[in-house]
Amino acid sequence: MAPIRSVLPALVAATLLAACNLAGARSKPVALPDPKLDVPASATAGTEVAVFAGGCFWGVEAVFEHVRGVQDAVSGYAGGSALSARYALVSTGRTGHAEAVKVTYDPKQVSYGQLLKVFFSVAHDPTQLDRQGPDKGPQYRSEIFATSKAQQQAAAAYIRQLEAADVFASPIVTRVGPLDGFHLAEAHHQDYLRHHPDEPYIVYNDAPKLVHLKQMFPKLYRQPHG
Question: What residues form DSSP beta bridges with 143?
Fold first, then answer.
């Protein structure tokens, strides 16, 4: 997200929201095949954790909070050191961090492969290099931080599958690598869309993602708890 956001009159914001819902989006979601390689749920598995970076964490967090089987989604930073995991520093683009979202989910209700499908289809545009929409810089890059070898293999395999299927007009630039620490973002970044639904940035950039999620994944869509 841009460090400084303009504030539009409420009437303009409402008009933008209506346009987003009627037109279906600022950018259309992409229909994707199911992953051929998934991470099977263990018979004794409890919750699992997945970490995704796809631009401003506000919208990515909101998308996964609306996915059935996800117990929690929180915004934070991944890819850099704990010492630099602060918004003011991450925003410089020089810390190595990406704005990321840690997703805690029940693999018996939603698989890692299904989360990947949501991530690539509606949560962000995986063809934008070091940016996402109006937000530019390496902190807004597309990256999957795997918490297990199985996740890393599944993510890499899905990217190869999507590239072979030629589903995107441009090459996928999403990085895949092991997670080396997740650092929780400041309190005011958590549940940002829920607390600021009328903010113009949210209305224009993030609210349409929830519309798309409900359209593309009706069986996975749910209202978040709380």
Answer: 53, 175
